[in-house]
Specification:
Layout: H1 16-39, H2 50-53, H3 56-68, H4 76-85, H5 89-115, H6 135-146, H7 154-173, H8 176-188, H9 190-199, H10 215-241, H11 246-260, H12 264-274, H13 287-313, H14 316-324, H15 329-344, H16 346-359, E1 369-370, H17 371-379, H18 388-417
Length: about 425
Amino acid sequence: MIKNINFLGVPTRDKLNLFVSVGIFLIVLGFLDVTLNTYFKTNLTSFLPVWFSYFTPLIFGFIGLHYIRIEFSGNKTLDSLNKNINSNWFNAILTLLILFVLIQNIPPLLNWLFFDADFIGTSKEECSREGACWIFVNVWLKRFIYGLYPNAEIWRINVSFVLLIGFIVAAFLVPPKLKKYIIIFLLFVFPFIAMNLISGGNFGLEWVETAAWGGLSLTFIISIFALLFCFPIGMFLALGRRSSAPIIRYSSIGFIEFWRGVPLITVLFMASVMFPMFLPDGTYMDKLVRVIIAITLFEAAYMAEVIRGGLQALPRGQYDAGKSLGMGYWRLHLLVILPQALKLVIPGIANTFLALVKDTPLILVVGLLELVGMIDMAKSNPDWLGFATEGYIFAGVVFWIICYSMSRYSQSLERKYKTDR
């Protein structure tokens, strides 16, 4: 039977079982060689020259994938496998390299992250250092979430975010007639109520200066306010850049190009250090407010270009149809143009929002300690020196969860509004 295999030709469907059997055997042999060599220091091809035996798993796997690469085999699993990861020789090699790297690195990584890690304790001395010391994160968790906010007043932050989540959930459950009122309340009223509750100074609440705000809660506060304000500002800038009035058009172009041409870290530094110098004597603006304004204006410039792309994608007929119905400029754009344009650029809007959230750690340069800033402070504590890795991994996981959730929501909006046309 083996002599009937054409080793140099293309595997055929008429000998499907034979080719697949030999292919799977060679693939398994390649993976077995990598596994034994990595974890048991055993080389199946040790009788071969060292330089050659190093590549034998890749050779076995490559030949095996070649044998199972049978077009229209009739087996759905095999056809799907060939279509996605084994469509040609390059994809086959790339697949094998990725899988071999994962085999060599995933188990040690899991050992460090979980199996050899320390989770329970209150001090550095209780960490074995064989694996990750998650005791560091556990001890500092409250600071990572709330910053230097007074412990006795943390309930105010919790109440604010619980109310926010409650109103968002209610917006999805109530009838459409009530939904718009909840959205208006969330956009224009609730942020200021929450800020007054967190900052205090009214209704008998203790005043907490913004310098004490920090951690993940500060990340959310800055992100939410910047998201709320950068979108409408960006929308008006996009419309202004397409305006027929030269003053409006060139002013919008100048604003957009200026803010897109400077790094965010420079903008934050100017807002924190230079801007107060230009204020009249006796005028004070809180540093956090200045930072939110700076990030909002910076991201609005990028948002404007995203929305402008959607506006340019619409055919001229949409404008003519609206004008033929007697619509004015604002009615035409609010009821006809913008709803269609925004549907087309949902991925771009989501991408800008994700970038905004991930840019918030830069506020560290102006002395505001959000999540990453609190980790930097904790790692420099004499009692916890040498545990920065665990802190940054924790921050990375948190940011990934936030960004992935936003990404999934944007994808659901794309499906809902059929942006793929």
